[in-house]
Design goal:
Its EC number is 4.2.1.46. InterPro entries: dTDP_Gluc_deHydtase (IPR005888), NAD(P)-bd_dom (IPR016040), NAD(P)-bd_dom_sf (IPR036291). It is an enzyme of class 4 (lyase). A seven-stranded parallel β-sheet has the order 3-2-1-4-5-6-10, sandwiched between helices. The protein has a three-stranded mixed β-sheet with strand order 7-9-11. Strands 8-12 form a two-stranded parallel ribbon. By secondary structure, the protein is of the alpha/beta class. It has a domain of 249 residues: NAD(P)-binding Rossmann-like Domain (Rossmann fold, 3-Layer(aba) Sandwich). It contains twelve helices and twelve strands. It binds nicotinamide-adenine-dinucleotide. The site of nicotinamide-adenine-dinucleotide has 31 residues, from helix 1, helix 4, strand 5 and strand 7.
């Protein structure tokens, strides 16, 4: 089978591509624009495979999408390409509207025409491809808004109430994907997942930022009082869940994916500090001493928590890592992949300096 992955040079897309090449026989076409978040160095271990093909393209470029689909004839599309960083969506929402909404619309239209042309073909292979074709939209639990401490977990039928430009743009794209299913019959499936962490995570996000700041003795900026709660999932567990949904999910359905690991941001930072303290203690003091509380993010959601029982019940997926094992693996990965980190921090992975600040 051939899977087209959009955003395969990003954090989660990269984990999907590596898992598909390392653990299956499927072919992969990775379509990525290579924004600041796209890093081909994260795919070094699979890029020589004859089952892997990379195309640099923007999902909002209708001509390019039509051409790639006609040329590569994928059996499935896994759509991960997006602008994904909440703080950036507050500083500059335009790219989020363009990629997450206009880009998803453009890709849906290209997929619809491709799928319709397969359906109209006289060739049995094309008709078989049309039957197994699926457009999988990868989304976030942030579309559901936030929860009070006493509220029930997000389920697949929780009403949408996004808070940030990022989550509003992802909610819009989810609605577009469902509309293309209802109106045009395009076979789609959707997933909404909680916060991911793990290897190759871009260091503007909470966990890698804290690890790398701590190792260089810089402050560890925590928003507000650090009591916001997130559910955390190890990225390779998410990648396996996504592959299962793309291959076996029920057409038209949504699956929530989560780790059942609700933690406050402050607890996450404490855990990281303690793991680092045990491995590479500083000359004096404790990494926890570097924690600095900074003014809260506008519209910051209090709590996200996912009910992932449907994917467990229907597709037999459960995460392999606990929060403790996943965090330990992540810290060890960052301690042993210093060149990857250095190339991101000094911008040499894309030939420029990023000047990363204390964002997460
Ligand atoms: P990321 O920012 O690490 O990667 C995004 C990738 O998309 C990059 O490689 C980038 O170059 C590419 N891209 C951006 N704009 C593009 C465009 N116009 N055309 C083609 N490629 C483009 O993101 P991520 O964290 O890997 O997230 C992947 C998907 O999963 C996103 O849709 C995100 O909303 C969703 N998601 C993320 C999380 C999380 O915790 N990171 C959780 C749930 C869902």
């Amino acid at each position: 089978m051939k899977l087209m992955i959009t955003g395969g040079a990003g954090f989660i897309g990269g984990a999907v591509v590596r898992t598909l090449i390392n653990e299956t026989d499927h072919q992969v076409v990775n379509v990525d624009k290579l924004t600041y978040a796209g890093n081909l160095e994260s795919l070094a271990e699979v890029s020589a495979s004859d089952r892997y093909h990379f195309v640099q393209a923007d999902i909002a470029d209708a001509e390019a999408m039509a051409h790639i689909l006609a040329q590569h004839q994928p059996d499935k599309i896994m759509h991960l390409a997006a602008e994904s960083h909440v703080d950036r969506s507050i500083d500059g929402p335009a790219d989020f509207i363009q990629t997450n909404i206009v880009g998803t619309y453009t890709l849906l239209e290209a997929a619809r025409h491709y799928w319709q042309s397969l359906n109209q073909s006289a060739s049995p292979e094309a008709l078989q491809k049309a039957q197994q074709f699926r457009f999988h939209h990868v989304s976030t639990d942030e579309v559901y808004g936030d929860l009070a401490h006493t509220d029930d977990l997000f389920t697949e039928s929780t009403p949408y109430a996004p808070s940030s430009p990022y989550s509003a743009s992802k909610a819009s794209s989810d609605h577009l994907v469902r509309a293309w299913y209802r109106t045009f019959g395009l076979p789609v499936v959707l997933t909404n997942c909680s916060n991911n962490y793990g290897p190759y995570h871009f260091p503007e996000k909470l966990i890698p930022l804290m690890i790398l700041n701590a190792l260089s003795g810089k402050p560890l900026p925590v928003y507000g009082d650090g009591q916001q709660i997130r559910d955390w999932l190890y990225v390779e567990d998410h990648a396996r869940a996504l592959i299962k949904v793309s291959l076996d999910g029920h057409t038209g359905d949504t699956y929530n994916i989560g780790g059942h690991n609700e933690k406050t941001n402050l607890d996450v930072v404490y855990t990281l500090c303690d793991l680092l303290q045990a491995r590479v203690p500083p000359a004096s003091g404790h990494y926890r001493d570097l924690i600095t509380f900074v003014p809260d993010r506008p519209g910051h959601d209090l709590r996200y928590a996912i009910d992932a029982r449907k994917i467990q019940r229907e597709l037999g997926w459960t995460p392999s890592e606990t929060f403790e094992t996943g965090m330990a693996k992540t810290v060890d990965w960052f301690l042993t992949h210093t060149q990857w980190c250095q190339n991101v921090l000094d911008g040499s992975y894309r030939g420029e300096r990023l000047g990363l600040q204390g964002l997460h």
